[in-house]
Each structure stands twice: as structure tokens, then as C-alpha cells.
Description:
This protein has 248 residues and is mostly helical. It is 64% helix and 0% strand.
Amino acid sequence: xxxxxxxxxxxxxxxxxxxxEEARRQLAAEGAAKLSLRAVARELGMVSSALYRYFPSxxxxxxxxxxxxxxAVGAAAETALARQPDHAPHPARWTAVCRAVRxxxxxxxxxxxxxxxxPVPGYTAPMTTVGPASRVGQSLISxxxxxxxxxxxxxxxxxxxxxxxxxxxxxxxxxxLPPPVVAALxxxxxxxxxxxxxxxxxxxxxxVEDRDTFFEYAAENLAHSVGLIGGKSAGGVPFAAPxxxxxx
Length: 248
């Protein structure tokens, strides 16, 4: 009996994977707004009623794809951070996470667009997407938290008007970090995806040609903005505390 159950479970896993793979193909060809369970079933040679046993609605299929995408980019960020040697400077660890997110996005543009592009009309993401969506942010927080513990963090300035909001965000996101750092982290996290989206969706066309070098420069500046200090940038320039400058 257990052998039969195991075979059924394996078959279900294989069919679920095939459904999601076909759905991703349709995302690439038509976009998320046009995703159709009937079209997926047709391409797989299934009747619609059979597919509904796996995903009762288009929204449930979308949610599965969204969770997979968040988990994939989150895993890329976490792996990049785990591969950094213990002695790596904190800004270099930050930049490694940012670089891994960009690399994943460039390799999976349609999945990136699903989670960071325009909202899908009529779709509301359930709470089950929140944990996977936080994985990249948690990797960045981990870098900053370690730097804070190692005294490798220069707390950036914070406008008085933002102090109450920074304290509220800190209580929800990282209560062990100073509120000015958490406010800067949220800003840097959003700017990271802004950089990637500009590149992926064409806003850098005819403006930025050396995309790799520009991204490294921008990611290093984001490291500065959250207060990470120590080590050297990709160009060999020492990382400095926020607000310091050798310029005029």
C-alpha cells in the first residue's frame, strides 16, 4: 500500500512541476495577466478538470509561481552570502548579495517581472508569499547585523522628521539594529531592485553601457549608505563611513 502511495505522490510532484513549467512558458510568451489554466491544460494534453485538482484557480497557480520565484532569488542571495569567507569585509559581503540578485534576475527576467514588475490585474498575493519575499532583505539585514556586532558599522544620519517612522519600521524589521540603519536599509533594499529593474526593463538603454561596472559602483554606494565600512571596493578604493569624501 505504501508503495502505491509513494508512486502516486511522485506522479503528483511530476505533474505539478510540469504544470508550473508550462505556466512559466506562458508567462514568458503572454505575460502574467493572460495566464490561463485552460491554456496550460491544453498544452499539457490534460482536461481542465484534471488540472483543477492541482491548482483550483489561476490565482493559486500564480501564487505557486510567485513563491517559487521569491524562493529562487532568495536562495541565490543566501548562497552568495554563505560563500563569502569569514574575513571578507562587510561591504564586500553586501555587494556579493546584490550581485547574486542581479545575476538571478538577468537569467530569469520573466520570473523577476512576475514578482517585481507590474501587479497582475485582479490578483492579491496571500500571506504565504511574505516569508519567501523577505529572503533577500533578510540576507542584507544579516550583513548589516554582523557588521554592527563587529563594530564595522557607522550609523548614518537620520532626519528628525523620520525618527518616529524609523522606530516603527525597526520594531517590525530588525529591533536589534539602530533605527537610522534600518531606515537606510529599507531605502537601499528598494534602490537595489530599482537598479535591477531599470536594467532589465530597458531604462538604461543608451545611457549606461558598461552595466557590470556600473552595478558594482551602485551596490558599493548602497553599502556606504547603510553605514558599512572597512575593506576596499572593486576598484581598490577603501570603503569609508557615510558622509566622508575626498572630493571638493
